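Hey all, sorry for the wall of text incoming. These are the two entities for the joint prediction.
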Amino acid sequence: ETGVTQTPRHLVMGMTNKKSLKCEQHLGHNAMYWYKQSAKKPLELMFVYNFKEQTENNSVPSRFSPECPNSSHLFLHLHTLQPEDSALYLCASSHQGNNQPQHFGDGTRLSIL
Amino acid sequence: SQQGEEDPQALSIQEGENATMNCSYKTSINNLQWYRQNSGRGLVHLILIRSNEREKHSGRLRVTLDTSKKSSSLLITASRAADTASYFCATPTSGSARQLTFGSGTQLTVLP
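and here's what came out:
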């Protein structure tokens, strides 16, 4: 139990579907992150939220749409994805402040048909 | 460009042996972190070493940092089969206060 819960753990969707990934943290953290982990590639940061405000968007395509309604919840809305978007999507959280250790969920394994 | 790069990419040892993984980075940093990832799971933070520290211990883990060589090493002593995982170093991303840049990782296999 890491304190960061991601649902669903696995998701298979067609390119025309719309789905959402959910992340919830019970650690009292104020910063939350979405990462993409593809095979044989380094972890890629997608979005950063601090106190519910988006502070970083690393040139992520608009077919990925994040939402952070409060400091404990983070969503990633998906629509019209491409096969190359198949990957493990990891959520993380941390305390406010520079370079704090990040706590990760177990990810959602996404497969695009 | 990638900040941290681990070496080797894969390492296979016998239970009880020590495992050493290295990380090199390019720009000046104020800290470096090591994470572990078991298959099918998220990353777990292991240890953070600050730029003014040369060595840090946590249980069977020993981390060193050489800022003059821009490198760090993670040593796992008396390895166990449960240590089998991928190990990543992470460094602060240049120009960002909160971003971390992760390396590609070392896949460690500990054989029973």
